[in-house]
Amino acid sequence: MTRTKAAAWVGGACYLLMVSVLVGAAPRASGTVHGVGALLAVSLLAGMVRRMPPAALAMALFGSTAVVVGRPSPAQESLAASYQGQFLAYLAVDLVLGFLVATCARRASVIAVAVSFAVQLLVIGGFAHGDAMTVNAVIALLATAASGMAGLLIRERREHAVALRAQEVGEAVTAERLRIARELHDMVAHSIGIIAIQAGVGGRVIRTQPEEAREALRAIEATSRETLSGLRRTLVSLRQADRGATPSEPSPLAPSPGLADLEQLAAATADAGVRVELRRSGEQRPVPADIDLSAYRIVQEALTNVVRHAGTGRCRVTIGYGDEELSVEVVDEGRGTGGTGNGSAHGFGIIGMRERAGLLHGRFSAGPRPEGGFRVAAGLPLPAPAPAGVPVGAR
C-alpha cells in the first residue's frame, strides 16, 4: 500500500513538472497547444485518481488554472484567442471529476462539482472577453454536467451490479439451506420413526417377550448408529466446504445413497413392522447421481409416512425405468392420509418430496386412493441415452 501511494505521488509530481514546462518553457506556443498538452498530461495522475480522487482533482484544478493564467506570446495570436485555446485544459479537470463522482460519496461528489465549476467560472470570467467569455462559460457548464452525468451512470451501474450479486448470493444461500434441510429431514425422519416404533414395541413386550425386546433394542442401536454416522458425514462435508478441503486430504464421506440401497431400506422398514414389496420394471441402468439420490429420498420419506401414519403392515414400492423418465410409486392400503408428512403445520415430508421432483423438472403427486390407502408418485426426467457405439467417455 505504501509503495502504490508513493507511485501515485510521483505521478502527481511529474504532472506538476509537465505543467511548469508548458507554462514556462514553451512561452511561444499557442494557447491551444498549452490546453491539449495539459489534457494529455493528466494521464500522469492515473494512480492518484484511483487512490486519492480529491487530491487528484485539486492537483488537476491547480495545473489547468496555471496553464490558463500563464501568459502566452502575443506575437503568435491575439490574447483573447490564446485564452480560448487554453481553456481546453479544464477538460482534464472534467475527466478527473467524472471518476470522482463515480467512486466517492454523494456529498463529496456534490462539493467537488460545485468547487470545480466555480473555479472554472471565475477564471473564465477573469481571462475571457466579450462573446468568448459567454461561449467558454457555456462550454464549461456543459462539460461539467456531462462529466457528472457520466460518473452518475457509472455509479448506478456499479451499484446495480453489486445489488444483483448480493441477490444471487442470497438466493444461493437459501437454496443451499433448503437442500441441507431436505437432506437432514429425509435422513433423520425415517430413522427416528423406526426408533420410535421399535422403542414402543420393546416397551410393550419387555416383560412378556424378552427376546423380542432385545431385537427391538438391537434395531434401535443399529438405526441410531447409522443415523449418527450420516449426520457426522453431513457435518464433515459442511465443515470442509467452509474451510476448503485440500486435494491431499482423504475424503471421509461415504457415497450418497441411491436406488441400489432400496433393499436395505426395505429391510429397515420391515424391522419397523411394515413389509415392503419392491418391484422394478424396465431396463435397469445407472442414472445420474442427482436423480438417483432424489428417487431414493422420495421412497425413504414415503416409507417413513407409511410407518408413522398409514396404520398398515405392508406397502408396495415400484421403480420404473422408462426411456425418458424414471418413475417412482409408493402405495399402501392404510388409512389413506399422509398425516404430518403431508406438509401440514406439523411436518415437511410431502413438501420436501415435491421440491426434489421440482428441482429436476419432474412431476409429483401424493394423495389418498379411491379404493383406499395412500399413493405417492413421482416422475424424474432422464437424459437421452447415447446412440449405440458411442463410447461412455464421449457422452
Terminal Cα span: 50 Å
Give the fraction of residues assigned to helices. 55-70%
State Rg.
38 Å
Average pLDDT over all residues: 78
Number of helices: 12
Largest sheet: 5 strands, mixed
What is the helix/strand order? HHHHHHHHHHEHEEHEE
- Using DSSP, what is the number of strands? 5
Transmembrane segments: 7-26, 32-49, 56-75, 87-105, 110-128, 134-154
Domain Histidine kinase/HSP90-like ATPase: 295-383
EC number: 2.7.13.3
Catalytic activity: ATP + protein L-histidine = ADP + protein N-phospho-L-histidine
Describe this structure in words.
The chain is an alpha+beta fold and 395 residues long. Among the domains are: 2-164; 274-384, Histidine kinase-like ATPase, C-terminal domain (Heat Shock Protein 90). It contains twelve helices and five strands. Strands 1-2-3-5-4 form a five-stranded mixed β-sheet, covered by helices on one side. Helix 8 (131-205) runs antiparallel to helix 9 (210-243). It starts with a helix and ends in a 14-residue tail after the last strand. One of its GO terms (molecular function) is kinase activity.
